[in-house]
Amino acid sequence: MGSGPPTYDAEPTALPPADPDDLDDLVADTVLDGARYGTSTIRAVSVRGDSARFRGEPRRDSLLTARFGVGEQALVLVAMATGARATPGAHRAAAEACHWIGRAVGRSHARLAEDIRAARRGDLKSGLHRLTDRSLGKLRASAAEQGVEPEEYSATLRCLLLPAHPECRTRVFFGVGPGGLFRLRDGEWQDIEPAVGDTAGEAVVGFGSQPAETPEGDRLTMDLGIPTPPSPYEPAPEPPREPFRFRASVARPGDTLLMCTGGLAEPLRGEPELSAHLSGRWSGPTPPGLAAFLADTQVRVKGYADDRTAAAVWEA
């Protein structure tokens, strides 16, 4: 799709270089997964982009799908991360980000599942914000250990939490960094990526960022726009970080929720033909199988050659 044929071949041409003493560092070209819990059918995929395939570079995107707990009390996590462009350890940083958030969510899964079922918006948002900050903080610690700048060993992080209980249709998104969150409802795509500062939305338990004022009506200092000179007695402030994003929405029967990294979000927003194609493919009475989902997410668009990682949830 697009203005002409894509620049690169449709299939992988070169493998990344391998270190015989560190084969665990190799990243597969494609990862594909899926499951069904409660009313949800999950499909997840991470595919190396055409550009990386041509150059023999590893996939910078990482994907983690995990179930914590058993039965109706279980909680499913889908996490995806993208390492910084043009850095040698990008794939390792992305994998680390997924593993750290996986550990954090897994250790707190019982409380998280309870908060989701009880629609405790404030507890969920603040708790997931802390878990995300701690997980990405591990990356900054890893960068220091390796002697590199934090921005050279960093990653975006996007996550979905899906309770297995069949009577709970709350779907929780949280993360840091660009990408996409879309909902296919009645054959139409809705871009529901939470913008910084959003505080309300249709059929939403809660999403957005910290309020601009206190309950008493006092404006918070951070919003005044007044620069504060650095104190000679304190360390220099860290560079600004990407804002935390959160959305907890209630799914309807027939919805399809799609979370993806920028490699798919950008062509979905920029190429109407692609969004129309996927709408037609994913609006049927049954979810696609794994092979069909892989083929759908690999539809090529001229001018978009980055890794693509996506997780879609079909509601019965």
Question: What is the gist of this entry?
Answer:
This protein is an alpha+beta fold and 316 residues long. Helices cover 28% and strands 26% of the residues.
Quick one: overall form? globular
Counting DSSP E segments of at least 2 residues, the number of strands comes to 12
Largest sheet, in brief, is:
6 strands, antiparallel
Approximate strand percentage: 25-35%
Radius of gyration: 20 Å
Give the strand order of the largest sheet, numbering strands 1, 2, ... along the chain.
1-2-12-11-7-8
Can you describe this structure?
This protein has 316 residues and is of the alpha+beta class. The protein has seven helices and twelve strands. Strands 1-2-12-11-7-8 form a six-stranded antiparallel β-sheet. α2 packs antiparallel against α4.
Descriptive tags:
single chain, alpha+beta, six-stranded antiparallel sheet, 316 residues, 28% helix
Secondary structure layout plus pairing:
Blueprint: E1 30-37, E2 40-47, H1 50-55, E3 61-68, E4 75-83, H2 90-107, H3 109-117, H4 121-146, E5 155-163, E6 170-176, E7 180-185, E8 188-191, E9 204-207, E10 244-250, E11 256-260, H5 262-270, H6 272-282, H7 290-297, E12 308-315
Antiparallel strand pairs: 1-2, 2-12, 3-4, 4-5, 5-6, 6-10, 7-8, 7-11, 9-10, 11-12
